[in-house]
Design goal:
The protein is an alpha/beta fold. Helices cover 47% and strands 15% of the residues. It has 8 helices and 5 strands. Strands 2-1-3-4-5 form a 5-stranded mixed beta sheet. Helix 6 crosses helix 7.
């Protein structure tokens, strides 16, 4: 089975990650061929990390090692991929804020793509991101649960989101919700 190295590069892309493009390399050799690329992060399996430690140790703030469970590597950011989507998103955003908080500031200050959501859809999205269930969102906004479900469906379609984690990322990156509020 091939280990995949995922890399984020500073460039403009879709609404979820303004200023980012995902590049996937199926081997370290494929990564090495991208010499002049200015990558923001390297998401790498622990096996690839240990096989090419020197390279990743030379880029400590950029390297994020994907681990199974609570494995820690001294001086390196790790990301436990065996957790719930919401916990994983929180951990990614925490890493972002800790090591590259400037990227979120740049995204907020950059010329933004027009907001894709209506004001009511933003309200619904923010409440969902904070962990409220559809019925709780309905009660909070004084609407029916069916209306909330319709807004949720429209939000997912407009953002091309596959899960609530995608909506959460969109809301955080676009400054609609602060990671501290989650």
């Amino acid at each position: 089975m091939l280990s995949i190295i995922s890399i984020l590069r500073r460039e403009y892309s879709p609404a979820f990650w303004p200023m980012a493009e995902v590049v996937i390399c199926r081997s370290y050799e494929e990564l090495a061929m991208q010499e002049d690329a200015d990558f923001l992060h390297y998401f790498v399996s622990s096996r690839i990390y240990f096989e090419h430690t020197k390279f990743f140790r030379d880029h400590p703030k950029k390297s994020i090692v994907l681990v199974n469970g609570d494995m820690m590597i001294s001086g390196v950011n790790t990301l436990n991929v065996c957790q719930s989507q919401q916990a994983l998103v929180r951990e990614i955003m925490s890493l972002q804020r800790k090591g590259h908080g400037h990227a979120i500031t740049m995204a907020r200050n950059a010329e933004k793509a027009p907001l894709l959501l209506s004001a009511r859809e933003i309200e619904v999205a923010v409440l969902l991101c904070k962990g409220l269930r559809s019925k709780e969102v309905a009660d909070s906004l004084c609407v029916s649960p069916t209306t909330v479900m319709t807004h949720r469906k429209n939000i997912m379609e407009k953002l091309h989101a596959r899960s609530l984690a995608d909506v959460l990322l969109y809301c955080v990156v676009n400054g609609m919700v602060d990671v501290e509020e989650l």
